[in-house]
Design a protein that fits this description.
261 residues; Nucleotidyltransferase, domain 5; 5-stranded mixed sheet; 8 helices; 10 strands
Amino acid sequence: MSYFMGVDIGSLTVKVVLIDGEGRVLGSAVDRSGYRGKEIARELVDKVLSEQGISREQLARTIATGYGRITFPADDEVSEITCQARGIAHLFENARTIIDIGGQDSKAIKILPGGKVIDFAMNDKCAAGTGRFLEVMAGALEVDVKELGNLAAKARKRCTISSTCTVFAESEVISQISQGAPKTDIVAGICEAIAGRVAALAARVGPEPEIVLTGGVALNSGVVKALEEKLKKRISVPPEPVISAALGAALIARDKATKNK
């Protein structure tokens, strides 16, 4: 039996996925990266392999992706855009557009059947429209970032967060708090703000159904709903949207190993 590993070292988190020769996910793990991305990746790989009773020598191939891919001793390095496309095409056969909201950047990727990338747009110059934007806003509101989706669902209206800069948007949130705006309404406004920025990014590639949202922000139901309203299209979310690029890396590892036989 052959096994394949995908390692995604992102700006904020590390994700690893182990699959078998049939493309079935045997195990996965996620952890914060910080300054120890490479070390965390090694630890997670060892953890997943140990849980499955598999040794490193049994790994036929490992592919690394993400910001820190050059730091990890893998068999090959592949861009996150390519890995994301491969992973989502595996999960959603009819996917044609991927919107990935990561910790420090966001991407819109247009793909053909099978996951071939035909166009993409990326925002990597500003934290607005990223997971970091939500973390900053959650900090200003003194709530856990995981609570934002539930809070947005309880809003009676959405406060307006108009600034395109994370720092100025945080000031707007603080101002809304001082004026006594309900926390739920502020959160709904935050979700709408990030959805607006991401929708503008997606418009650059011309989003077509099926649209799939990936990244940790995909777990925020408030952002998903607001983005659907902006795009006027239904959005699908993978069961584990954080690991889709790592899954794609593992699948590419399998593809390469099979091709070289």
